[in-house]
Task: inverse folding
């Protein structure tokens, strides 16, 4: 989880890099903090997307996560069949 202190440090390092440059240690810290932030952002976005449900005009509700998993399973099965067909 990214705290406000982490965000403040990211911003501090950014402003310092523009003003005077960073040491090697600060550059490494900046890279690590940015990676942490991006990871947290992606996890948050994935959680939001996985909780989406769509209501069709007919009243039925589609769970986006479940539908995506079904689609990926179908693609994997098709890839396996294709590989078996090419192997024979």
Result:
């Amino acid at each position: 989880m990214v705290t406000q202190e982490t965000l403040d440090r990211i911003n501090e390092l950014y402003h310092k890099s523009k003003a005077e440059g960073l040491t090697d240690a600060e550059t490494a810290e900046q890279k690590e903090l940015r990676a942490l932030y991006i990871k947290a952002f992606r996890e948050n976005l994935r959680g939001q997307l996985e909780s989406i449900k769509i209501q069709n005009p007919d009243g039925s509700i589609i769970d986006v996560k479940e539908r995506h998993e079904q689609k990926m399973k179908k693609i994997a099965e098709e890839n396996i069949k294709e590989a078996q067909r090419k192997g024979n």
User: Anything to note?
Assistant: The chain has a mean pLDDT of 93.
